[in-house]
């Protein structure tokens, strides 16, 4: 961080700012000219409040030279993070696929889908038990019963389960019952929730907020990591734009950008990104080629009667054909699908 002082600022005012920065644990590197005075801050500046410095009337501007996230930053952790989930992993050379319905609806439904996606090569089962719905009148999920059904599906297929947590009150139960805790787009900046899951050692799947920048996503990961939990998997799931033909706009560039600035694995959710079943395959293929570490895909046995997101869910047969195509593509890209 560089503090640019206003020209002709009195010495005492400059000394005051320097002393404050030193008291906050920063080293100082100064550069002076006839018409400028720069104070460079050296060391860990993560606890420095930029806007507070900016509020000082003698300060012209504050220039950020390093990203505000530290633990999620590749600069301090050059090797890729691989998150271990039982005997499976997300990150590294493998392209891992999480699949399953938007919501758990019945034992027959979740077990049936789990068996099918496993046969096709999925590594994890997803299914919402607590659903974050825009309308309070829409299906809210089977809640605790949904978690029980996911556990039955895991028992029968050995697929680890991924499901969304919405409330800090349920953390203990989720830690006990699930393999990966999903934080949905709507809770990406629920900072109290992020801090609480940061105190657990469960792998976290953190989805990008619908209007969140990449830096905000990485800062959300930083919240979790700063509490001690470094097992964070990021998920690009489309962002809001002016486009209306798709539910969201898949930000493909987020994948190489996140890979450049962070060591955390990043997967893509083509289902929520496009919002339409026929967009899943092209977006999934693009994600693999762009360097994503995997996918989260909604699969439903009867999309026309799904309780949630049927229009963007693919049937198990189409999922199989998608996996076959991704396996072929993986060979070209040197990725293990
Ligand atoms: C989901 O994965 O079921 C979901 C609700 O996704 P998002 O949080 O990305 O909208
Ligand atoms: Mn959904």
How is this fold's topology laid out?
Blueprint: E1 2-5, H1 11-23, E2 27-32, E3 37-42, H2 50-54, E4 59-63, E5 83-85, E6 88-90, E7 96-100, H3 107-120, E8 124-126, H4 144-157, E9 161-164, H5 171-177, E10 180-183, H6 191-198, E11 204-207, H7 214-226, E12 232-236, H8 254-261, E13 266-268, H9 270-274, H10 280-290, E14 294-298, H11 316-333
Parallel strand pairs: 7-8, 7-14, 8-9, 9-10, 10-11, 11-12, 12-13, 13-14
Antiparallel strand pairs: 1-3, 1-4, 2-3, 5-6
Can you give keywords for this protein?
single chain, 337 residues, alpha/beta, Alpha-Beta Plaits, TIM Barrel, 2 domains, 4-stranded antiparallel beta sheet, 11 helices, 14 strands, 34% helix, elongated, binds phosphoenolpyruvate, binds manganese (II) ion
Looking at CATH, the homologous superfamily of the largest domain is Aldolase class I
Main β-sheet, spatial strand arrangement? 7-8-9-10-11-12-13-14
Enumerate the distinct ligands: phosphoenolpyruvate, manganese (II) ion
Structural Rg: 23 Å
What would you say this structure looks like, in words?
The chain has 337 residues and is α/β, with parallel strands linked by helices. The protein has 2 domains: 2-63, Phospho-2-dehydro-3-deoxyheptonate aldolase, domain 1 (Alpha-Beta Plaits); 83-332, Aldolase class I (TIM Barrel, Alpha-Beta Barrel), CATH 3.20.20.70. Helices cover 34% and strands 18% of the residues. The protein has helices at residues 11-23, 50-54, 107-120, 144-157, 171-177, 191-198, 214-226, 254-261, 270-274, 280-290, 316-333; strands at residues 2-5, 27-32, 37-42, 59-63, 83-85, 88-90, 96-100, 124-126, 161-164, 180-183, 204-207, 232-236, 266-268, 294-298. The strands form 3 sheets. The protein has an 8-stranded parallel beta barrel with strand order 7-8-9-10-11-12-13-14, surrounded by 5 helices. Helix 3 runs parallel beside helix 4 (144-157), helix 3 packs parallel to helix 11 and helix 6 crosses helix 7. Manganese (II) ion (MN) binds at residues 102, 272, 298, 308-309.
């Amino acid at each position: 961080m560089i503090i640019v002082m206003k020209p002709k600022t009195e010495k005492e005012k400059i000394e005051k700012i320097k002393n404050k920065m030193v008291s906050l644990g920063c080293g100082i590197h100064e550069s002076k000219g006839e018409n400028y005075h720069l104070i460079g801050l050296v060391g860990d500046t993560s606890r420095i409040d930029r806007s507070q410095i900016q509020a000082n009337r003698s300060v012209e501007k504050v220039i950020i030279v390093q990203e505000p996230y530290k633990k999620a930053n590749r600069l301090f952790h050059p090797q890729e993070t691989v998150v271990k989930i039982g005997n499976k992993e997300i990150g590294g050379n493998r392209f891992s696929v999480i699949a399953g319905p938007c919501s758990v609806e019945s034992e027959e439904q979740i077990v049936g889908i789990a068996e099918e996606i496993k046969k096709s090569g999925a590594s994890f089962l997803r299914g919402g038990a607590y659903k974050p719905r825009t309308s309070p009148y829409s299906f809210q999920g089977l809640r605790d019963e949904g978690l029980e059904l996911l556990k039955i599906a895991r028992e029968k297929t050995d697929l680890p389960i991924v499901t969304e947590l919405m409330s800090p009150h349920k953390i203990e139960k989720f830690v006990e019952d699930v393999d990966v805790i999903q934080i949905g787009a709507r809770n990406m900046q629920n900072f109290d929730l992020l801090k609480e899951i940061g105190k657990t050692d469960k792998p976290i799947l953190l989805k990008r907020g619908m209007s969140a920048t990449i830096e905000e996503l990485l800062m959300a990961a930083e919240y979790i990591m700063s509490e001690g939990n470094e097992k964070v998997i990021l998920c690009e799931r489309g962002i809001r734009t002016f486009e209306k033909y798709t539910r969201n706009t898949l930000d493909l560039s987020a994948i190489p950008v996140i890979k450049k600035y962070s060591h955390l694995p990043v997967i893509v959710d083509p289902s929520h990104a496009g919002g339409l079943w026929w967009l899943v395959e092209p977006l999934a293929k693009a994600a693999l080629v762009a360097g994503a570490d995997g996918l989260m895909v909604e699969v439903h046995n009867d999309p026309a009667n799904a309780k949630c997101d049927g229009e963007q869910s693919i049937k198990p047969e189409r999922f199989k054909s998608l996996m076959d195509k991704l396996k072929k593509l993986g060979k070209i890209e040197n990725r293990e699908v």
